[in-house]
Fold this protein.
Amino acid sequence: MPFGSEAAPAQPDSERAFLVGIDVRTRKRSGAKGTVTAQAAAARDAAGLQPTSTPAGAAKSNGQPGIPEFDAEESMAELHTLAESAGARVVGEILQRRDRIEPATLIGAGKLEEIAGAAASSNADVILFDHDLSPSQQRNIEKIVERRVIDRTQLILDIFARHARTREGQLQVELAQLQYMLPRLAGHGIEMSQLGGGIGTRGPGETKLETDRRKIARRVRHVEQQLVNVKRIRAQQRQRRESAPVATVALVGYTNAGKSTLFNALTQAGVLASAKMFATLDPTIRGVQLPSKRKILMSDTVGFIRNLPHTLVSAFRATLEEVQRASLILHVSDASSRLSAEQDAQVEIVLKELEAEKKPRLRVMNKIDLLDDEVAKSLLADAARGAAASGGPATLYVSAVEGTGLEQLLERIDAMIQEDPISRVSLRIPQQEGKILSLLEARSRIHSRKYKDGSVELEVDAPASVVRKVREWVVKDRA
């Protein structure tokens, strides 16, 4: 699909896509057995975790948590979902296992001929590779298969372009696409034909390739300047928010972990919640009242994915600053996925790139409604025991769809938020102070209420911002 376009949702005449996966096996480090995919090894190294064949989250003998391997078949299944999210109809797929990458074409020439034949017989419009391709690899493959070839990064960029709705989101995606396109100009398609060197190519004018590069570089500078303006406006909005003692809680997690569904359940915001990947691109911020009657701002953010293109992380940095500035990060995981720990490792990589890995964090395992009833009950019981032993669970199990565990989640968020701290105070307020009494009714937890000599005697748990407003009627402070 062309860069910058906003394609319509998939229709019966949508593009037919043929998927190609590659499983490059490397030897594990000393002391390990078997083989492991290079991508999984890189993710574990970045997250500081160890591989395991045990269930997600199980502890290894060295005390570190282990994660199951994200194997080639599961990677292909993810590519299938990505293709459908881009509006394509998958008509076939091939997975090749290799010991090393072919520098010129990623996979062998014989396998490419097989792919060309299979794509032709299925009448595929485009071939999608579950791997990043260098510009020369992409050109070489296209010559052999005689079809458009798109790698994993370009596919993700296309999905982002389809789903961006706000001007900010569209600018961020366009910048990432332009940065991806620039090194791929030479020889990429007939509209950007490669010009050879030597006689006949030199002269006073620019070649088309140089003109294209100059135009793109100029557009990149323009988009970057617009994003600087967006960042300034967002900073002003954030400064106004931060002038009041209101904490921000950011939801992060792997794409399709159910963040938007959870966000809707907690805020009644009504944002799009879809099974398609990257349904949420544009950040949404809504207010939530906690059990203590304090108010917080909750931010829904773009989902992360394996090998999220660096250009996208850079382009969306203005949006993801909500994560950097958050008082608390809710890390949402899919409890029903065997690969939740591997996906969490990928989220860790992006959080480190955003320098937000040390932020206070609460792990939320979503979609427990998709688990076996006995498994779900056991997890909830374990979480309750852990909470009783440590004063609060590090992991909560919820179902955003069914509303299970949401009250406990809000209670835990309330306990972890430090802004506008709660204190217990005793008050004696004249009954004619209706506004003050209404304020306490709305913004505090009232433990007792007595009417005496034209006054109301109250004992309340109230945020510091409310206590300041009722200071003149305080009888006794309690820690």
